[in-house]
Give the backbone structure.
Amino acid sequence: MTVAGAARSGIAASELLASQGANVTLSDTRTQVDEAERLRALGVELELGGHKTETFSHADLIVTSPGVPPEQPVLADARKRGIPVIGELELASRWLRGRMVAITGTKGKSTTTELTGRILEAAGYKVSVGGNIGSPLSAQVAGSTPDSIHVVEASSFQLEQIETFHPWIAVMLNFSPDHLDRHPSVEAYGAAKARIFENQDTSDWMVVNADDPEVLRLSRKGRARTRLFSKDGAVTVGTVLEHGWIVDRGMTTEEKLVPLDAIHLLGPHLVNDVMAAAAVGTIAGAAPAAITAAVESFPGLEHAMELVADIGGVRFVNDSKATNVDAALHSIESFDAGLVAIIGGKFKGGDLRLLREPLKKRARAVVAIGEATPLVKDALAGAVEVREAATFEDAVKQAFALARPKGVVLLAPACASFDMFRDYAERGRRFKEEVLKLA
């Protein structure tokens, strides 16, 4: 067996295959892997510094990490030879003994996944949370039992490489253009997302955002039963907002699930994530008291609209997970005035001009960072003042000065982090470090 990519998913897949007695080669373009000693102790052979054609052409099965593009030449050659190529999510799902709740969407996946796990735990279920966040699905196989529920965040990179992946409940939160540096088109990105419904049958459930026309379109081919949720209340049956509550609306009855004042998340758009998680809880049989208790105790995720500090009347908010234009748009719209946004990084596609009007209404300035600085300046010219920052430290300092007095410094990059950082988490931690220096 050959595993391509030695990030956390590839390492977990290698460990799973080795535990099942397979001869495993883990191939990566990097020259060093921190877990090398542990992997070799399990019998995993490491191929570092590049992918050798023969390693893939002689394999019985190839498993890819999400970060490895499926059109890599060695993978294309293997497919021509008839060698099966699957993703880590697909591999792990074949060994799970419990049911899966899979959650996808352009934004809000991590928040919804974590909160769904907490709701199901509060309802008394044995729950494992992971996938694209936390523990890779392959790392959950050993502890999987028939009564387990695996709550899985599923990205487009993971879903494009499935075959039999079959969630009991599949959730699609929203859809907007993203990852166009990897997917050849918006249509291809949407098709990858829609695969979350592909293997479901009439005994399963789709939880679908009724306020998003593209989500409704992508879900139409699904065979599972549909549970709609709508912040606008535009559904007769489903999960809606009504008189300060998240409500489960039936044909003839309504049941209050969660009071809105139990939600302690910064940003009104995150109410959608809570509604989706509550809808899953309702399908699973969670009582409203359990759903409310989980929501009330949930402070949100690190790097997702995270309030970092208040320094001299200036609030600092870390939304490093806002790695695409639509996510940044919702972050920006969460504030009324006095905003200074830090935007930029490695651009993934989309239309930065969509940020013009929201920023014009509420921002004092934008501080542009990273590779996308020229794109940010061009897209926002004439709408808001754009300052350039040579370093990340300089960006935070400039933003602080511009936000005084009583403003908000918001890290909402609308871009990936890979030009300056290992990932969005490292970028978010660095932001917090620079804020603490100011304090």
In short: The mean pLDDT is 96. The domain at 306-438 is CATH 3.90.190.20 (Protein-Tyrosine Phosphatase; Chain A). The CA atoms of residues 112 and 274 lie 7 Å apart. The chain has three domains: 2-83, 90-296, 306-438.
